[in-house]
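Illustration: (wild Malaysian banana) hypothetical protein.
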Amino acid sequence: MEATNIIKLLNQDFVRLDRFDGTNFTRWQDKMKFMLTALKIFYVLDPNLQPIPDPTDDNTDEVKVEQKKRIEDEVMCRGHILNALSYQLYDLYTVEPSAKAIWNALEFKYHAKEEGTKNFLISKYFDYKFMDDKPILAQVHELQVIVNQLKAEKIELPEPFHVGAIIAKLPSSWKGYRKKILHNSKDITLEQIQKHLRIEEESRMRKKSENSFGNIKANVVNIKTNVVNIKCCESFWPQKGSKKI
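Result:
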């Protein structure tokens, strides 16, 4: 009956997880914790868990049952962890004797690696600057990708902080708009600032288009005026070969 329940549990989508290949360790570890907890064997990885005592003739039947279950849970936990690794990592960690040894080895290697990733993402977020030669909203979305990557690394940025960073990163040509937004006493959400930026950007593009069209019309008028002037000059001066009056 217990085995049937475990199979049913593993077939459910919310406990399925991709094989860990060395990337996104924190996300994989969280999913692994959930699955092992659902299977009631995560306790095996408790660092304070005492080792299984050697069996003796004095052990009662109850103690023997507990020892047997503990051994089975150890084996099952180790198997589930190994089964959730890529083939390359499976071959690398299958030599570890226990589930706890595998778990600790993975944490030691990949937590340290992700700390470097976190520092890199934080630096990338603060160094990101908006440019005039790219659409503003496209740059906001690029910055949001970094925020999502930080979130995956368990670094949550408060929304007001992120909105403030977006306003601060606007290029110099948006100085007047930035000043107007900063003087707004109301708190602005991420959705609202994106809406405001879209409206402002569309307005700027429309004005730019109108100015370009106005310049074209002015050039056409100038060309027509020059043509008229040339024709006037040609009519004033006698043509070659004509008789002088």
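Reading the tokens back as a structure: The CA atoms of residues 108 and 189 lie 39 Å apart.
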